[in-house]
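Look over both lines before class:
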Amino acid sequence: MAGIKVTDLPVLGAAAPDDVMYIVETLTGTSKQINVEDISSYKVYTALLTQIGTGAPTATVLQNTLGGTIVWARGDVGDYTGTLVGAFPANKTFCINGGVSINGGQMYLSRTSNDLINMYSYLINFDDLAFPTSDNVIQGSSIEIRVYP
């Protein structure tokens, strides 16, 4: 590809994290190989979660550039963890959840440690201001976990 202007290159479709690009340094003429994930501003896990009965949440993963698979487990009623060793460093992990689920429930997602994301689901009862944790609340609920460099 020597001598081709960047503006003359074909448009690239969606790139996978392990796709390789080459960047040529104009002053030295040397090139450097980088992966698409190397130039992203953050790594991301985006999924739709569903939890039924006493089972662990199941994920429909929409995007995952974390470098591994998050394993979801149920610890107790309405208390779940997502585990991926070393994936969630302190002060660099940002959790977003879609909030409202089914049956008048809510969910809350947060980083617990370098290895764990914690998620709670609970019912809202404004009559007596109770918010008990509950299973069967999460159904196709959206989450996103961003990990910044």
